[in-house]
Design goal:
two-stranded antiparallel sheet; globular; single chain
Length: 90
């Protein structure tokens, strides 16, 4: 099976995309509502076929971003919504 090759955005384009994500999310963490510092998180990891797109990126504060990666189980949009709402036991 061949892995789908994704184009990696250059730093300038990725920076603009992150700014668009933060703007859409009103510069708040989608999990806890904190304002800063924010990270742009890929809901579906690039290594799992996720892309650099507004629909696949969300704003998370450092603490929530770390906690999400520590679960290691949120792999898609539905699981992310459940995790954010506190219903995901992961």
């Amino acid at each position: 099976m061949f892995k789908h090759m994704r184009t990696k955005l250059d730093a300038d384009k990725y920076g603009r995309l992150c700014t668009a994500v933060f703007t859409r999310d009103k510069y708040r963490c989608r999990k806890c509502g904190r304002i800063a510092p924010l990270h742009a998180h890929h809901i579906v990891r690039r290594s799992s076929g996720g892309d650099d797109s507004l629909d696949n990126l969300v704003s998370l504060c450092f603490e929530c971003h770390r906690a999400l990666h520590d679960t290691g189980r949120v792999r898609n949009h539905d699981e992310f919504i459940m995790w954010c709402s506190g219903f995901y036991g992961g």
